[in-house]
Amino acid sequence: MLSKQKIFALGLQHVLAMYAGAVIVPLVVGGALNLSPAQMAYLIAADLFTCGLATLLQVMGSKYFGSGLPVVLGCTFTAVSPIIAIASGSNLATAYGAIIISGLFVVLAAPIYGRLLKFFPTVVTGSVVTIIGLSLIPVAMNNVAGGQGSPDFGQPRNLLLALITLLVILAVNRLATGFLRSVSVLVGLVIGTAIGYFMGIVDFSSVGTASYVSIAQPFYFGWPQFSVTAIFTMIIVNIVSMVESTGVYFAVGKATDQKVEDRQIVNGLRSEGLAIMLGGLFNAFPYTAFSQNVGLLSLTRVKTRNVIFAAGGIMVVLGLLPKLAALTTVVPNAVLGGAMIVMFGSVAASGMSILSEVDLRKDGNLLIAACSIAVGLGSAVLPSMFDQLPEFARMLLQNGIVSGSLTAIVLNIFLSRSQDHTGAAAPAAAPELK
């Protein structure tokens, strides 16, 4: 039985693992829309606060809402360009009106989407989980080099700091036992940040300028306004997120050694829809299951939901206390990159483990896995190949997880003659896809 102190430490580890991904969205959107420093500070605080609420809603699990899986929710980067486009063409109130309605769409559409889960046999889920891990590796490497667009991108000190962080995590995971082993990523982040401070690349200025308390208030940027075009755009964004989240649910099931039921996915998506509506209410963002945290589940071997409850609570507190939240931003990108190599690699390895259960010699399984992984990884590495397509197509195809998932689903329909839900060959008397 884990003590409260250990649960808190494990929860904090999950928060730090996803923190960069969580705050980058408000930073990018706020910067593109030329928001004032006060508005930017609110946007970040509201985002963290709603991230926490969304995670708590997801992990609780009830008859209709919440998957009950140890899943962390964060704002989806897929929504960044659409929100900027909508707000630039009209205003932020229109963007948030579209977010609220699109969240309601997810709540209502989740049961219908659940009926399509028969198209996710093991060969598809294994391919999708592998794609999730592989498509995140370029993100890790960008951070290893110092962060895309940073003035010191690729400098040797960043590479050295990332290597030290990685080695610390590996050493703790290999040599330590018990609780210390389960917080190996947190240990690596702390030691890496301390070394970064002595190297002169840790900046505490954001902590000094941050306010002590911030209360998320509904409709901070004005009462929501509604546009059919904006609503349709955000619905497309959230359909993309539903496909992405499905892959994350399966990956979490693999990491925690449990079979994910269709009901859990439907309830999880309903919960995500409710979280998206909260994002619109508090003028934050649409939310989706974060794949960044799946690797931690495999590394820590701690499967209890209490840790994710703690992570959600920590994010709520950080959203209310911006100065404390700013303290978590001092972790250098290179340190995060070193930790991401382990976490994202673990997700890819989990996908390969799922695929090992599939007979790749039967029913086109090899082609399904090969083509979907190639398309997904290609989209993630070179999203600019789709720049000339219409906006809705770009949203679908520039997301490697979604493009790879759709490829796997379509190929499974056309190449698999007869499969059951596990991906094994079904008896000849049952030709339909089950």
Which ranges are low-confidence, i.e. pLDDT below 50, for 5 or more consecutive residues?
A: 418-434
* Helix count from the secondary structure assignment: 18
- The ordered string of helix (H) and strand (E) elements is HHEHHHHHHHHHEHHHHHHH
Strand order of the largest sheet: 1-2
Biggest beta-sheet profile: 2 strands, antiparallel
The SS-based structural class is: mainly alpha
Mean residue pLDDT: 81
Number of strands: 2
Q: Which overall shape is indicated by the principal axes computed on the Cα atoms?
A: globular
**How many separate structural domains?**
1
Quaternary organisation: single chain
Strand fraction equals under 5%
Helix content: 55-70%
Compute the CA-based radius of gyration: 21 Å
Head-to-tail CA distance between termini: 40 Å
Task: List key phrases describing it.
single chain; 434 residues; mainly alpha; 2 strands; NCS2; transport; Xan_ur_permease
Entry summary:
GO terms for molecular function: xanthine transmembrane transporter activity. By secondary structure, the protein is mainly α. It is built from 18 helices and 2 strands.
Can you put this structure into words, describing what you see?
This protein is mainly α. The chain is 68% helix and 1% strand. It is built from 18 helices and two strands. It has helices at residues 4-32, 37-60, 80-89, 92-114, 122-144, 156-175, 178-182, 184-198, 205-209, 228-255, 262-281, 294-300, 305-320, 322-327, 333-355, 365-381, 391-397, 400-415; strands at residues 73-75, 287-289. The chain is globular, with a radius of gyration of 21 Å. The protein starts with a helix and ends in a 19-residue tail after the last helix.
